[in-house]
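Renewal narrative, Specific Aim 1. Our central claim is that a sequence can be written position by position from structural information alone. The example that follows is taken directly from our test logs and has not been curated for this report. It begins with the structure tokens describing the chain, in the order in which they were read.
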């Protein structure tokens, strides 16, 4: 039996999925300043995601996104309206 553990309330950086996180970071770097959330807002959003009951193994179970990517866009909103 293979014991697969799901990391509850873990963002990608905490879940050990560094390859996915690196890809997301490269994509975020390509955003224009008009598209990108400023760093203080980005950190606020990720902190809220980190407290959310719908976060599991680096994925939002409400909408299926990677919070690190969703939070990077100014226009995006949390599917639960936490930010």
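The sequence written for that structure reads:
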């Amino acid at each position: 039996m293979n014991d697969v553990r799901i990391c509850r309330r873990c963002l990608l950086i905490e879940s050990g999925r560094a390859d996915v996180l690196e890809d997301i970071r490269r994509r975020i770097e390509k955003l224009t300043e008009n598209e990108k959330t400023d760093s203080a807002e980005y950190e606020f959003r990720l902190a809220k995601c980190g407290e959310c009951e719908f976060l599991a193994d680096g994925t939002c179970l409400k909408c299926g996104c990677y919070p690190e990517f969703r939070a990077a866009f100014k226009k995006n909103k949390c599917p639960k309206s936490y930010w």
